[in-house]
Design a protein that fits this description.
The protein contains 4 helices and 2 strands. It is mainly alpha-helical.
Length: 104
């Protein structure tokens, strides 16, 4: 099955890159260019990395930290875990305010 349609990269090619030591979407992209064009395959690449024991992507760690992850304790980090050493905690995010629509 194709993972990256832009560069015709298959799931088997991504798995081989992971077996060869790639542990991030960027490292996968260096070898086969998957994820470097439209980016729609990056989530699938991240999922394949997770299935093969690679460290979760920063987005997954952030979701776990904010309590938004599907599974509590993704990759051994419980929700609300402190920021890794050398990193400042993320600021609180407030929702965007929408301006009222004007009649033309």
């Amino acid at each position: 099955m194709y993972v990256c349609m832009c560069h015709a990269v298959t799931e088997d090619q991504v798995k081989k890159a992971i077996d060869a030591g790639a542990n991030s979407p960027r490292q996968i992209a260096k070898g086969c260019k998957a994820g470097t064009d439209c980016g729609s395959c990056v989530r699938r690449i991240q999922a394949l990395l997770g299935e093969h024991g690679a460290r979760p992507c920063p987005t997954a760690r952030l979701a776990a930290k904010l309590g938004l992850a599907d599974r509590d304790g993704e990759a051994g980090q419980p929700s609300g875990a402190p920021a890794p050493a050398g990193q400042a905690p993320l600021p609180a995010v407030r929702p965007l305010e929408r301006a009222p629509l004007r009649a033309a």
